[in-house]
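ok so heres the complex, two chains, lmk if somethin looks off
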Amino acid sequence: MSTKIQVEHLARVEGHGGISVELDDGAISSVRFDIYEGPRLLEGLVRGRSYEDISQILSRICSICSVAHSLTSLKATENALDVKVTPQTELLRDLLSRGESIQSHALHLFCLAAPDYLDYPSVTALAADHPDAVKLGLRMKKLGNTIQETLGGRAVHPINAKLGGFGKLPSVESLVTLREALLQGVADSEATLKLLASLPPAEFCHTDTVFAALSSPVNHGYYAGDEIIVSSNGHRQSVPAAAYRSLSNEQAVPGSHAKHSQFKGKPFMVGSLARLSVNTQGLTERARLAMGELGLRLPSNNPMDNNKAQAVELVHDVHYGLAMVDRLLREGIKQEGCVPVRPKAGTGTGVTEAPRGLLVHSYTYDEEGRITAADVITPTAFNAASIENHFRFTVEQSATKDVLVLRKKLEMVARAYDPCISCSVHLLQRRG
Amino acid sequence: MSKPTVGLFGLTGCAGDQLVILNCEDQLLDLVNALDIRDFLMASSANDTSCELDLALVEGAVLSKRDEEKLQRIRARSKALMALGTCAVWGGVAALNPQADRAKLLEEIYGAQGAEYDSLPPRALREVVKVDLNLTGCPIEKEQFLSAVSSLLNGDLPIFPEYPVCTECKMFENNCLLIEKSEVCCGPMTVAGCDARCPTMGIACVGCRGPVGEANIPSVLAMFGEKGFPRERIAAKLRTFAPVPGDHS
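and the predicted structre for the whole thing:
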């Protein structure tokens, strides 16, 4: 007898995707995380465009990760053109990316994931019974957007981060306002932790998981660095950014535009839980304690822990973000211009952490600064194989094979990855 | 009066315009109280996918047969349809090079399998169905969206700017990036409504809101020519987010 567990339109995620698992006499015959986005072909369409235009075009791959796409794009182009930005630019980009992560994690935890745990269809339905929890989530979300607006000039598709630096540096007044918002954020992050700790446990599958994240041992950040760590059962392996292709043996999959990434034949998970696994030592003291309060033990073998990991990062980022703003106010903003950028032939790779995981942009330019090749690999493309792997274990380890129960479990597993499906259609370009 | 029934939908794009709506943190709870939101897949798992809608808000461009059929179904059940964002209004970045050989790109990017993908040349919503209102921007501006919804709730048609970004730039007394700094700024040809965000931060306008109806294109092109900007660079830049009016090349 064959059974099909299908979620035709996965709700409360970014983009359009679905789930389908088929069982034959209780044994799994097919597992699919389907992607229904039309191919936009942006990596191909930008060919021939000037180095000056690329970050503004490719940030449009995704809205929720638009800061990450912009900054990764700038990093790739700056590497290709041998541009080294100032420490202040690095610091402001780091803070900007923390703003993005706060917004994205708050949106995901409160508006997309929390309704599952409390059995509501949406955040607005949740608001009717739990208005304070929803208002808390919206305040955290707004804090992230305030950081993005202050430094990036816009909450979605930032404009102010440009090649070599920033268009306009933040004023002291705007930093003081930001500081007040972050102080409120510190208090709100405590309430967020309490709320997350009170949610019912979600344990649908347990399995050894391989994690990959950008190494950030000092301050657990998203922007700086160019070494990727693959971590498996405590064993760590280093992959330089320029060798990102070893993280991906591109397999096109029927019915999906996501090509599946594997490292040495194993799927791996990217995102908050991967970052915590790789960069635990970079967490602030408060965030480290938060792990214990949420019952999060590393290495984790439960993909649902990604939700807890996002909460830990929220705590870390408001604390660390506040320290960064204090430092900027104490030391003052240097009124420096952008580092000059001149076209030349070259290849450059930029790797950062988007809120939902590792993001790679890699470009080649000709001597006049026109782009001749662009590769973009997004977190959800990296995660696709791991998501399907966890779907499989969820069905296998479930005591009941009731279709409705399994549907809800699979949806929650997919959502825990915080998938960004618009992103996931942008994949490796085939070479050779 | 009963609350208007509303659906929010995304075709192919980045979901940035739906995100702008979710980013209205201070107004979101009032907004959902003023409207009867029946279908909003990005925010809810309990949607009525067939009821009649007073207003459909649709973002993204039509890039596949799936998008086309979805849009036709939305149109058939909606009294009014508003296109949200530059992709829906103009085609957006996915349409930046209409001459590109898409079959070749599909194969290059996705391999032999690319040929099987559901892919159509990008189209704005109005090229597929009747569109009642166009709210442009990449992404849309929060204030413009909220004021458009308020107008509709009061039985009025929303008013959108019909002048170029330069007008807003002058109101902010910004130095002109085009005239004074010789940067390729698309402000003179781009419709306002963003409070000249980019030039105000010292960044040249990239034209993300699409063209303004009243642009004096020959005079702007002449000015670009005087500045010595290479012709193909200007053409590519101006066509990034939307077609240039009167340009059929």
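quick notes: The longest strand of chain B covers residues 53-59. thats all i got rn
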